[in-house]
Design goal:
This protein is of the alpha+beta class. It folds into two domains: 100 residues, Peroxidase, domain 1 (Orthogonal Bundle), CATH 1.10.520; 70 residues, no CATH class. It has a four-stranded mixed β-sheet, covered by helices on one side. The longest helix has 18 residues. The protein is elongated, with a radius of gyration of 22 Å. It is a peripheral membrane protein.
C-alpha cells in the first residue's frame, strides 16, 4: 500500500505530540473512534476517498461528525490532512497510530477464535497465558467461528496455538492417510 509509509510518519508525529501533552491514551481512544466510525459508514469512507469532493468539505464533515467527541490533536490531524490534500489517509493514519501506541505501551493484540463467545473468567485465563508466554499483557480480540467445533485458536503476534477440535480431526485424518497399516479402499 503506497500510503502506508506516509501514514506511519503522520502517526509517529501525532504520537510524539500526544506524549508531550500527556494525552496519548485519549488520542488513542479518538483514533479507535475514527476507525470504528469509518468502518461503520460506507458513505463516510466513499466521501473520504472521493477525488471530486474538496478537502475543505471533507474537513467540515469530519468536524461536524466528531465535533466535541475528539481531542484537539485529532482535530489538528483533520486540518493537516486537509491542507496536504491527504484526507483519504485518515483511516490508515488512525490504524497506524493504534499500532505504534500499542507497541509504545508494550501491548499486544491476542486474537482468540472460539466456537462460542468467551466468558470473562476464560478471558482472564487467556490473559494470564499470554503474559506467561510473551511477558506482556494483551488486548483480547474474540472471534466466534462455529466451524472450529470446539476448543480455541490463540494468535499473539506471529505465534499461533491451535487447540481446536477441527484441527485435531485434520491431524487424525492426515495420520490415517499416511498410515501404512491400513489398506486404502
Amino acid at each position: 500500500m503506497k500510503e502506508s509509509r506516509p501514514a506511519l510518519r503522520y502517526a509517529k508525529a501525532i504520537l510524539n505530540l500526544a506524549k508531550e501533552q500527556g494525552v496519548d491514551e485519549a488520542v488513542n481512544n479518538d483514533m479507535k473512534l475514527i476507525i470504528d466510525t469509518i468502518a461503520g459508514s460506507d458513505d463516510l469512507e466513499v466521501m473520504l476517498k472521493s477525488p471530486v469532493i474538496k478537502a475543505s468539505d471533507k474537513k467540515k464533515v469530519l468536524d461536524a461528525l466528531f465535533g466535541n467527541k475528539v481531542n484537539n490533536i485529532a482535530k489538528g490531524l483533520f486540518n493537516l490532512l486537509a491542507e496536504n490534500k491527504r484526507m483519504l489517509m485518515l483511516n490508515q493514519v488512525a490504524k497506524q497510530y493504534s499500532i505504534i501506541y500499542d507497541y509504545y505501551k508494550n501491548m499486544q493484540v491476542a486474537t482468540v477464535t472460539t466456537a462460542v463467545e468467551l466468558s470473562s473468567e476464560l478471558e482472564a485465563k487467556i490473559q494470564q497465558k499470554v503474559i506467561e508466554i510473551t511477558g506482556n499483557s494483551a488486548t483480547i480480540n474474540n472471534i466466534v467461528n462455529p466451524e472450529i467445533i470446539g476448543g480455541f485458536i490463540l494468535r499473539v503476534g506471529d505465534v499461533q496455538y491451535d487447540a481446536s477440535i477441527s484441527n485435531q480431526f485434520n491431524e487424525l485424518r492426515r495420520e490415517f492417510d499416511n498410515s501404512h497399516y491400513i489398506p486404502k479402499i
